[in-house]
Amino acid sequence: MNLASLPTPSLVLDKQVLERNIRRMADILAARGVPLRPHMKTAKSIEVAHLALQGQPGGITVSTLAEAAYFARHGIGDILYAVAITPEKLDAVARLNAAGARVMVITDDADTASAIAAHPSPPRVLIEIDSGEARSGVDPRGDELLAIAERLGPQVAGVMTHAGHSYGARSEAALAAVAETERRAVVSAAERLRAAGHATPIVSMGSSPTAVHGGDFTGVTEVRAGVYMFGDLFQAEIGTHGMDDIAMTVLTSVIGRRPGRLIVDAGGLALSKDRSTEAAPRDYGFGLVLDLAGRPAFGDAIVRRAYQEHGVVELDPAHPLDLPVGAKLRIAPNHTCMTAAAHDRYHVTEGGEEVVAVWDRVNGW
User: Fold this and answer.
1) Domain residue limits at 91
2) For 269-282, what is each residue's pLDDT tens digit?
3) Do 211 and 247 have their domain in common?
4) Which of 80, 16, 66 is nearest to 226 (CA)?
5) Which residue, of 177, 209, 230, is where some domain finishes?
6) Per residue in 202-250, pLDDT tens?
7) Class of residue 114 by CB neighbours under 10 A (exposed 0-12, middle 13-18, buried 19+)
8) CATH code at 290?
9) Is 102 exposed, middle or buried, given 0-12, 13-18 or 19+ CB atoms closer than 10 A?
């Protein structure tokens, strides 16, 4: 089976690039003396998890309970469910843990902390800290941190934070500054909890940009990162990796031709409508068009419009194309996490056009 024979749109994963990305992140964090707890919210695949865990302690991060159940079924027990828990989900977590998993949850809410503590089988909990993104988490200097810990009691396992605002940085210095702010926030929260008598063994931070650009991880016990495995156009724009490090692409077919543009069968449902590069130095629209081998052979041929099933490619005048309907192309994604979520499997290659494996993904919640 080769790419030319696949139905479109299909998700393609270059295993060689994936493995290179995984080794690079492992080497970066090993040199800084901090373990990696890889985030599987993008990959959602046991085959990718096995690659990502090589040389790591064995714990992973997930963003849905469906992922937690899937990875637990495949033998990975140490799981951090890194989206704030709601009380009605505690029974599902308890069932996973009763079956042998060790799922931890997070909260930034005092009432939820009380519900966790009152549950017949309460999980271990990390208190979420706001390190500057202002999305979720408590102020590391505020009273709410200690109030939540008091309600959780012995279920407090540590603290965690995510510097999602690192995506707004546009230089190595700015990314390093965000990483240090992230580190200080979560470490200072852990120190306050310990001073109040709460054992706080886990101090967890991370995003792929801050993992790459952070210079000091003193006091941090683990780093969570995930998008580094696959890469995308936005991460390349902010310097997390290079353009050659994008491991995942979408295979598409030409379905129409017009002067200066092509119509392809990868639209919003296959690519997502995320526009993260819109605010980056270079805007790639909804994706950069590559040839069937995954090479940037067409200059700035960019998917400028995305309808449900249609993508409109604006061709680069310096690279005119005369492709027939049915010709196959690949599209590098703007935001790989959102793009992958539309697909249920990877068609795995090893640097060429031959499909060497098909890896299933878990979707849903």
Assistant:
1) 15-230
2) 999 999 999 989 99
3) no
4) 80
5) 230
6) 999 999 999 999 999 999 999 999 999 999 999 999 999 999 999 999 9
7) middle
8) 2.40.37.20
9) middle
